[in-house]
Amino acid sequence: MLGERLKRFRVARGMSLADLEIAIDHLVSSSTLSKYEKGTLQPSAKTLNQIASALGIKSAQLWGEPPCDVEPIAFRKLTKLGKKEQKRIKAFVIEELEKRVWLQEQISEQNTLELPILGTTVKNLDDAEGAAYSLRNTLNLGIDPIGNLMSVLEDHGIYIVEVNTSESFDGIFAIARDANDKVLAAAIAIRSDVPGDRQRLNLTHELGHLILDVNENVDPEKAAFRFGAAFLAPAEQLRKDVGQKRKRFYKKQLFELKKRYGMSIQAILYRLKDLEIITEEYYEKWCIKINTSGWRKSEPIHIPSEKPKRFSKQVCRALSDELITERDAERLLNQTGQLSSEKSLSERRQFLALPKKKKNRILSEQAKEMADFYENDTEWQEWEGGPVEHRHT
Question: What is the Cα–Cα distance from 190 to 206, expressed in whole angstroms?
Fold first, then answer.
């Protein structure tokens, strides 16, 4: 258990074994760290505490039982992400969802998830369309465009986790279950810092994957896209806005639809084609125009991205009710991977290149700081069986 969790926490931060060795000031070698992860060697209490500190977590998170079992669902089939980055993102999402489940327990908040997780059977794309309407009814959303999609999802129990990664990543979802396979929480992970229109479609796409049980003869990506587009732009409301059939649309009309539904012009046109409001030929003409206008990468009309708020509100609540400490709050809100930045590792490498006398002086100062840390750290004392005693020689 300890080895598996150590490796996952390390991978979530994008750290190699060599990086972790540097982060713990060469307390043990990377080969020894590898043995810890494989379970062939157990770290001492001191080493474990320093590893946890370098990872920005409590040592109990390494050797203790996790608050839940998290299952991250696979990436989209055509993802261009490398295997290493896929592993990092999966580990990242698992840790972030574990944090949220742990905090739910501290504030005694019951699971508010109101979605049929993988519970809506889809035998064809029309079923995916119907699932979107059904979910809107369940959530009492009617058919009007959704103002703040992220707030709607969070209000109904979904956690949103933002991931700092390349443009090749769109999103995945994860489910947390207890030992009896009961769902404790669910999260949708999406890339941070994307335009609002793309963000909203990514969210609903992953929402589709989360609730749809797709038949093997149906393309799950097409089903999720159909679900997402229908959830954002219900056919009944869209037809009220544009009519049953249209021979043409002007740019200004598409701009207005983009602002109204918070969807890209490309997604709106695809939706109009799916509903047969426009013909396949007219849709293809617009695709050519979008290419020649350079809109595929950057469309006119900026839709602001939305920000998740649920988790930070829970942390503030727990802190104000004195259910967690300020240090706990800082750990929770420090997004996984930000504590072991490339900059800090680079600084450590620069340290190794310093003259011996200068290194010794710095190490002496750090040794005094570490002595103070271990003397006052209760978690360390619990491992060692009591407070540190001063010995004079």
Answer: 9
pTM of this prediction exceeds 0.85: no
β pairing state of 120-122 and 171-177: unpaired
Helix, strand or coil, per DSSP, at residue 323: coil
Element (H, E) at 326: helix 326-333
Task: Report the chain's terminal Cα–Cα distance, integer Å.
Answer: 40
* Average pLDDT of span 35-48: 94
The full set of domain ranges for the chain reads 67-293
75 near 86, Cβ under 8 Å? yes
Question: SS3 helix, strand, coil % of the chain, rounded to 5?
Answer: 55, 10, 35
Average pLDDT over every residue of 58-69: 88
Element spanning 175, H or E: strand 171-177
Residues 327 and 147: their CA atoms lie apart, in Å, by 35
277-284 — which CB contacts under 8 Å span 24+ positions?
277/238, 277/239, 277/242, 277/243, 277/244, 277/245, 277/246, 278/246, 278/247, 278/249, 282/247, 282/248
Question: Is 252 in a helix, a strand, or coil?
Answer: helix
Max Cα separation, the chain? 93
Contacts (Cβ under 8 Å, ≥6 apart) of 63: 1, 2, 5, 48
List the structure tokens of 140: 């009492």
Q: Mean pLDDT, to the nearest integer, of 15-32? A: 95
Other CB atoms within 10 A of residue 222 CB? 12
256 contacts: CB under 8 Å, gap ≥ 6 = none
Q: Which element (helix H / strand E) includes 191?
A: strand 183-191
Name which residue leads in pLDDT, 356 or 208: 208
Is pLDDT at 336 greater than 70 in this prediction? Answer: no
- Strand-pair partners of 70: 176
Q: 207 with 227: CB under 8 angstroms?
A: yes
pLDDT in tens, 139-165: 999 999 999 999 999 999 999 999 999
Amino acid symbol at 303: I
The values of phi and psi at residue 196, to 5°, are: -60, -35
Q: Chain-wide mean pLDDT for the chain?
A: 86
